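Final report, Chapter 2: Outcomes

The project's central promise was a pipeline that accepts a single protein chain and returns its three-dimensional structure in a standardized token representation, suitable for archiving and comparison. That pipeline is now operational. To close this chapter, we reproduce one record exactly as it appears in the project archive, with the input sequence first and the structure output second.
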Amino acid sequence: MNIKIIVATHKPYRMPEDDIYLPLHVGKAGKPDIGFQGDDTGDNISEKNPYFCELTGIYWGWKNLDADYVGLAHYRRHFSVKTIRKDKYASILTGQQLEKLLNETDVILPKRRNYYIETIYSHYAHTLDGSHLDKTRAIIEKRCPEYLAAFDKVMNSKGAHMFNMFIMKKELMNRYCQWLFDVLFELDKEIDTSGMTPFDARICARVAEMLLDVWIEKNNIKYKEVRYIHMEPINWGKKIAGFIKAKLFGKKYSKSW
């Protein structure tokens, strides 16, 4: 199998050594070189990175990579099937492990994140701005109404596959990206991000995290979940405090933790 998993990064960072991984400098347009392939070559949307984040890497892979399977991971978040406590990098999914998984399925997704007491829509509306999802729904209703039932089902569910992470057969990726970017480019036109903070402006990237499940649901795509690992410590205290403040006191997120 010819497999390429993009590792989206915006800074120099330790990368997996397995040949299936391709470090990609996302948002490379106009930036100093950091020694990795940039997403500003070939057919690209590198300049949209402040709003699309890792999606500029997905777009670049869609348009420029010739492989049987293509995926996306992050410099500090990777797929993993085995924990090796001494070195997290030894725990990252290998090509050999992945080939076994891909003999059973055409799509790999990260373990579903469950919110339990919130729906996907209510969580987004409490922590960010629910109008982004309302606008997305209106775009889907106009441009591809056959996806509307799947969108509503995902919005009313209490969990989703997050981070825009996936590994899938390139043929499926082509179909997914054609639909995804058609919706997102329209959303990008409708939302005025001028005057927003860099954190608030990442709207298309956030919405896309939920649209992956919409596409999976509508097209009845079979997939296998694989857990993911964080390469850096997570401040769970701040994350939980931020969630509670948003849920109980209406304080929107203003940064990532």
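Archive annotation: DSSP finds nine helices and eleven strands in the chain.
This record, like all others produced under the grant, will remain available to the consortium after the project formally closes.
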